[in-house]
User: Fold Redox-sensitive transcriptional activator SoxR from Deinococcus arboris.
Amino acid sequence: MTVLTPAEVSARSGLAVSALHHYEREGLIASTRTEGGQRRYARDTLRRLAFIRAAARVGVSLAEIRAALATLPGGRVPTAADWEVLAARWQAELDDRIAALQRLRSDLSSCISCGCLSLDTCALHNPGDDYARAHPSGNRLLGRNESGAEVRRRASAP
Assistant:
């Protein structure tokens, strides 16, 4: 079996050695140790890293990647077929994330164009002015007592 040093894996994968160590601590890749305690990675670690980077690039968390890799028999390296299965599993979640980001972009664009820069008080995003009903004085430092009247909040201890 061909083994690579962390520096070789780093150079070939484009990842920093510290990222390799992080992925190893996260259980995404594994290494062996020489008699001197130096890490060595199997050559197929490069393919595993490519899989991790591709998944992370589209927003899949390391925990989700770890769970996906754990489903592979014997911890083998993911194949193109594995990627297809996992990508299909992640597709709906990614579509939801994309939709949420598009809504956020739209909200930011309209908020910036109106000039208020506050989704809480914006006439476009909060036309009923819920904030004003909750805080008639406009002061966020005021709270409400049991009867619903606004009272000054006590400063919290450091």
